[in-house]
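Instructor's aside before we start: the two examples that follow are unrelated to each other. I chose them only because their records fit on one page, so don't look for a connection. First example below.
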Amino acid sequence: MAKAMKGMDRTLYKIVSLLLFGIFVVQQLSAQEYLINARRFTDAEGLSHNQVLALLQGPEGFLWISTKFGLNRFDGHQFRWFTKESHGLYSNQVSEIIEGPEGWLWLVYNSLPNTMNFTYEIELFHPRSYQVVSLLDKFKSIPFKISELEKILPFQDHQLLFTDRKGKHYYLNQKGNFITLPLPADFLAIRTKDKDKIWGTLNNQLLLLDREGNTLQSIDLKPGNTAIEVVSDHLNRQWIVSGELRQSKKNYYTVNSELSIWDGD
């Protein structure tokens, strides 16, 4: 098991196709040079299904993979399956896997792709005991309806941010309490940063807010565009995926030290 865990510690960067699953082990050679070794895994190697829906590297280093047929735990050598039939999952198609407080994995079940997306069930899965608990059983009182939940985002310390379709934002702390955040009602959260910051869009701007709603950074977007995703690379540069409203075209940008957008095209 020790050898397996060391192998998983090196599995830090993953590239997953929804039709074909691959895991890439990245080893850093220098500050700007990388060597990528690719390994390919399919159902022939033990994956429960070739179509992958979500992926997360959990608190103990295991890779958790949801497919069209259940949840998989990968230890670097073998896959173990967790399904509705064997472990009592709500469904065999988990749309999102999120690590929350106390090491619990949050399994989110959404509607099918290419339809109006909505969440219809959330349950918590313990990666050690394999216990499965519904959200309503774990927390007797929640301030939103599951069907109206728009997004769940984890902070760096695995506390969670919830946004519902009414534009309200909630924060789940380590004590298991839901706290309403004073963020703007039209603020669309995209990604958390560190333990207390949130990237999102408002009025054709990309904003970085703290949990009190204070603006820490403000970046103007191109007219007609909205930010879809914000990620950081190994040099701590912020990359923005921006798409045209009502169109499928996506553009990729980065932000320089003056907080202006550089168009990669």
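Example two begins here.
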Amino acid sequence: MKRLIYLMLLTITTGLAATAARAETTFSSTLAGSPGSSAKCFGRLTLDDSETQLNVYLDFSGLAGNEVGTVIRNAPFPGGVGPVVFTLGATGSTSGSFINQFAVTAQQVADLKAGKWYFDLNTTNSLDNRRGTIKIYAPFVANITPAQAIPPTVTTATAFCRLIISDANNQISSTLTFSGIDPNDVTAFLYVGARAGQTGGTFVGQLTRTANQLIDITPAQAALIRSGQAYVNVFNQSFPTGLLRGQLVRSGKDWPDFDGDGRADYSVFRSSDTVWYNLTTSGTASFRQWGLSTDTPVPEDYDGDGKTDIAVWRSGPAGQAAFYILNSADNSFRAELFGQTGDLPQVVGDYDGDGKADLAVYRYDVVGSQSYYFYRGSAGNPQGSITFVPWGNDFDIPLPGDFNGDGRKDFAVLRTTDSTWYVLPNGNPSGWFAEQFGDFNSDFFVPADYDGDGQTDIAVFRPLARVWYIQQSSTGTIRYAYFGIAGDKPVVADYDGDGKADVAVWRFSDGNFYSLGSGNTFSAVHWGMQGDYPVARIQSFPF
């Protein structure tokens, strides 16, 4: 394993068979000040899909002195003082807000994406001046539909909510949009403390159509949102208990959730007819023919709308291998040339932290030499540049995950010769670590966030012993779960919507999904038949 990691950028020309759909990119910043200050300073930015226009929102309150000038600067190095990029203005008050819109260049977008920009807020009390680094943020999203209402309703109306939590966990910023209904005829409330499919919980506040609406919350409420226990309920006089409902989930999640309700769906790909058979946890079935029998299923949320997109990767020589993606946001089709014969596309995921899955492959070189991760970031990358990261060799299996909880996939491999995991944190080459865990000769390797702390846990399933071994990142202890039998295939995902991956298998012999949710709640769902491929398997090895 090489300890010196080089990150290099290559620019390639990509072919598009159809118009690519992209969603706006979100950024966030919590401005820190003097120790012990109770002031709140929360900044949010959205970059439009053309990456030429930037909307900036900054709210502050409780400052020790009057705000006399706020700018965005470009730091030459982390913590350094850089030149002014944009001026937001001055309010002369201890509380206030800025709403600005700026045209941006490609270079400015690149600097923003690289984390060089920061807010610089100055006050008449220099001890309470504020600074906050601006970072890409994967927002929480809710697809608010009649099917999620309890009980379900019949209407063509829908809504969509995008939500950001401050790093201080004391404020949220919400943007709510409606379709098929007059927003003046309905009311939307945010609740925490209820999972997908549940009502009740604690009322947090009323959501309006104000872009980046600011609401104060408690750290406990922030924790419930992060754990998947929050929802938006839309009601009117005709439906006082709820016309529409939407569970808030983190965009960019890995498990298949085609309806965006926060719970993993049961999904199989049948190579004999190239049809995807999907069953939501609410019982709605859908079928879609997509791909060829020789394609590799790679479902992910590529457009950042909180719904998994049907997608396959088709092997071929360089310049012919491609991802074929059906965007759920607008039902558009994308064909993206990427990779080559021999690559492993199961490593797709969000490597730049913008809430949208990035095209990615893992590539072995000649025997005994370096292997590589290749990915093309979706945030601030209009040229389609490819990043490649040397990590592992031909004895290794790629098993990426977010092991440090920063919202970006980290580069990880399993060394087959001694069952050691080697993890390289994304953006921190010096922070790599190794952990021997499991047995390559007997185990499935099933990394996922089982304890709901936002970090991927190292885990294995030993089918002959019927035991799962999970090293929980939240406590450092090993959890044991007795579940499954020999011949089962792991399909780890969050089926009950509590923000934690559930121990789960798909049984080839009977076509059943078996899962063990929170509180050891057992579930069995018949879906699929012999010969099908349960698509949640791409998150484990063997694939």
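Residues 1-22 have pLDDT under 50 and may be disordered.
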